[in-house]
Amino acid sequence: MTLLKVEDLKVHFPIRGGILNRKIDAIRAVDGVNFEIEPGETYGLVGESGSGKTTTGKAVMGLNNITNGEIYFGDELLNKGNKVNIRKDIQMIFQDPYSSLNPRKRVIDIIAEPLRNYENLSKDEEKKRVKDLLEKVGLTAESMLKYPHEFSGGQRQRIGVARAIALEPKLIIMDEPVSALDVSVQAQVLNFMQDLQKELNLTYLFISHDLSVVKHMCDRIGIMYNGRYVEEGTTKEIFNDPQHIYTKRLVAAIPDIDPKNRKENTNFREQVKEEYTNSYYDYFDEDGLAYQLKPITDTHRVALPERG
Amino acid sequence: MSNPLLEIKNLKTSFRIGEEYYAAVDDVSLNVNENEVLAIVGESGSGKSALAFSVMGLHNRAKIEGEINFKGRNIANIPTKEMNKFRGNELSMIFQDPLTALNPLMEVGRQIDEVLILHNKNMPKSKRKKYIIELLERVEIPRPQHVYNQFPHELSGGMRQRVIIAIAIANQPELLIADEPTTALDVTIQAQILDLIRELKDDLGSGVILITHDLGVVAEMADRVAVMYAGEIVEVADVDTLFSDPQHPYTRSLLSSIPLLDDVQDKLHVIHGIVPSLKNLPRTGCRFSSRIPWMDEDVHEENPELSEVSPGHFVRCTCYKHFYFPDENKEEQDHDTTKS
Ligand SMILES: Nc1ncnc2c1ncn2[C@@H]1O[C@H](COP(=O)(O)OP(=O)(O)OP(=O)(O)O)[C@@H](O)[C@H]1O
Ligand SMILES: Nc1ncnc2c1ncn2[C@@H]1O[C@H](COP(=O)(O)OP(=O)(O)OP(=O)(O)O)[C@@H](O)[C@H]1O
Ligand SMILES: [Mg+2]
Ligand SMILES: [Mg+2]
User: Fold this and answer.
1) Model confidence pLDDT, tens digit, residues A187-226
2) Contacts of A249 in chain B (CB under 8 A)
3) Most-buried pick from B104, B105, B168, B214 (CB within 10 A)?
4) How far is the CA of A182 from the CAs of A177, A189, B45, B282, B338, in angstroms?
5) How far is A104 from chain B (nearest CA, A)?
6) Same structural domain for residues B158 and B11?
7) Is the dihedral of CA B244, B245, B250, B253 positive or negative?
8) Domain containing B146: what range?
């Protein structure tokens, strides 16, 4: 059975103005998004910065007011008076490792917080669990008594990872979980996430700008632009056979780790950018919004205008 | 040859833990020239941001030793009032952490204005606003008129980062320190921001220190690369050399951890062991030795120093001459090094 099903999700934020500070318009942060995630799957959400990825993740977590749509976790409808026991099953690793950690709390209290809410552990048991969790993310046990500001950016992100996995949830929403890490620690965290996934049959919603990481981790990928999906497919379909012009541009912009290819890459990107500009209105309506997704294979859907 | 724009000499930045100071940046010397992008890469926690903050004079509690010569003047430990003449003007920084760098209670436009006005006292308000909107457009922020009046928490992660970038380039700095400037951005906007930084360099001849974990960005942007491990520089080389002929075991390990686009790897390469904390850092011998325990102890120098292995290419410790990965054939490796 499908683990997470998001149907026609819309999250709009009011724009207020005028002397009465009334609602004069709305930012359509998420504007009609549909996707499903199967148990055990890693589903990637990538796209334009500001396109609504975090807002989508937060909506699933119950952290946003939903303007429209339904979110099902298994067969439970989440956005109508959500139950606490389901909330334990969904955890989120937040994009900003700085603001999501309480600066006045020690690491042990940060990581143990979810444990304290849901499990009844003795002080010693708790300490051991936190120590194990820290080790899993590559931090030493002595970190326990420190405060967030005493850590580097990447170290803080790992504290967030440790907290999110503390309760062994079913679904983890990971918003840029490794972008603050160097590639070796990143590799360590990603390998660990994959092992943990197999061990506990976890499901991941993986939000990231790093397309090589997404390619390495994800089974299927959704591409967002301006509040909507422009394309969805298996990892292979998205990387080998991108159909939407925005996806093509995204794939072309991936930095190349061979400095010798600089010139070639610049030229290729210019070319794709030109194609993008020239064919923009074949792919977006007059408001710059993507069209409805149309299936082109069983797994591959692309936002293209109605023909005819 | 003219003097480097920035010359860091034997910089040591130490944080107090309990009763003692521990160096997070430990005897680092580096130059940045005009019209040059120097990338700094390295393990998370290796001291990259601490180095950047030291140059910017933003560490209020840390102990700073050594010299930081900016345009020939030592700015290490100068009074805040003096420093403010440089900061945000000739010398500016894109912060790794947009949320703490931005004031949560102030509209975005006003925050940029504060920096602008500091160094442009005579620019009229209307002109400043026009310029700020332009800046927001240049960093690819959609609806700049609207964002001008928004608060940081109302912006996406990448939009906040772009606001920080707008602040940093507002006064066209001569030295820009960019600490993870594009990690929160999608690759198309990233490419445009990198172009913007390149423009700053090409049009004004500015020097740039680019700190990033994204080795693809390094490959596309940098002229030279410095690799840091545990507070020290372990390798410096021009960008082509660093990618085609890396020497230090840490650099080689790092490069082999990158997930590759055109290759399906089952498991990513991970460096053995964990990074020691600041307090427990080995302060003598090769600091990387505990991460490559399969190597014989006497391959390391007693007091490893940076030595020039070819013009402009510096490597610390002699262990690089013998280094091999555990799954490599040792005989082959030793043979290779004796041959060359
Ligand atoms: N609390 C809020 N109030 C008003 N607007 C908001 C709020 N939160 C998000 N937005 C707006 O919603 C849009 C989508 O933001 P979101 O954070 O979901 O983007 P994102 O895809 O995660 O981007 P990034 O990759 O940069 O993190 C943006 O235009 C943002 O300004
Ligand atoms: N204010 C502080 N007090 C105590 N220790 C600190 C402080 N700031 C940083 N450190 C420590 O100094 C070391 C270097 O930190 P720094 O932030 O420079 O790392 P970094 O190389 O920028 O890492 P990242 O890539 O994760 O951002 C780390 O061990 C960190 O824990
Ligand atoms: Mg986001
Ligand atoms: Mg840092």
Assistant:
1) 888 888 898 898 878 999 999 999 999 999 999 999 999 9
2) 188
3) B214
4) 12, 10, 9, 21, 32
5) 15
6) yes
7) positive
8) 6-222
Ligand 2 centroid vs A254 CA: distance in angstroms? 29
Q: List the single residue in A with minimal CA-CA distance to B96.
A: A153
Handedness of CA A87, A91, A94, A100 (dihedral sign): positive
pLDDT at position A139, please?
85
Q: Distance (Å) from the C-alpha of residue A64 to the closest C-alpha of chain B?
A: 13
Q: What is the CATH number of the domain that holds B218?
A: 3.40.50.300
Nearest CA distance, B24 vs chain A (angstrom): 11
Record: contact B254-A190, CB cut-off 8 A: no
Does residue B328 sit in the same domain as residue B258?
yes
Q: Are B213 and A182 in contact (CB under 8 A)?
A: yes
What average pLDDT does the segment A224-230 reach? 96
Residues B202 and B275 both lie in one domain = no
Does A154 contact B45 at a Cβ distance shorter than 8 Å?
Answer: yes
Helix or strand run (H / E) with residue A110 = helix A107-118
Q: What is the ipTM of this complex?
A: 0.84
Domain assignment of residue B235, yes or no: no
Number of structural domains found in chain B:
2
DSSP A98: T
Q: Which residue puts its alpha carbon closest to atom 7 of ligand 1? A: B154
B215: contact with A, CB 8 A cutoff: yes
Same domain flag for B258 and B148: no
Cβ–Cβ below 8 Å for A256 and B257: no
Could you confirm whether domain A4-89+170-180+198-236+284-303 is CATH 3.40.1060.10? no
Residue of chain A minimizing CA distance to B276: A140
pLDDT at site B340 = 36
Residue B241 placed within a domain: no
Sign of the C-alpha dihedral computed for residues A101, A105, A108 and A114 taken in this order: negative
Q: What is the pTM of this model?
A: 0.90
CA distances from A236 to A202, A251, B153, B251 (A): 22, 12, 36, 31
B46 lines ligand 2 (CB under 6 A): yes
Nearest to A256 among B43, B44, B216 (CB): B216
Q: Where are the beta strands (DSSP E) in A141-289?
A: 171-175, 203-207, 220-225, 228-234
Determine, yes or no, domain membership for B185: yes
Q: What is the pLDDT of residue A307?
A: 66
Q: What are the boundaries of each domain within chain A? A: 4-89+170-180+198-236+284-303, 95-168
Phi-psi region of A100 (alpha: psi -120 to 50; beta: other; left: phi over 0): alpha
Pick the range with the lowest mean pLDDT from A86-90, A183-187, B269-273.
A86-90
Would you tell me the crossing angle of helices A183-200 and A153-165 to the nearest 10 degrees?
0
Domain identity same for B173 and B303: no
Chain centroid to Cα B89, Å, comes to 19
Q: What is the B46 CA–ligand 2 centroid distance (Å)?
A: 7
Looking at the fold, whether B35 and B161 belong to one and the same domain comes out as yes
Best probe of the A interface among B13, B25, B44, B180, by most A CBs < 10 A, is B44
Query: Predicted confidence band at B98 (pLDDT cuts at 50, 70, 90)?
Result: confident
Site of tokens 């420093």? B83
Q: Whose CA is nearest to atom 4 of ligand 1?
A: B154
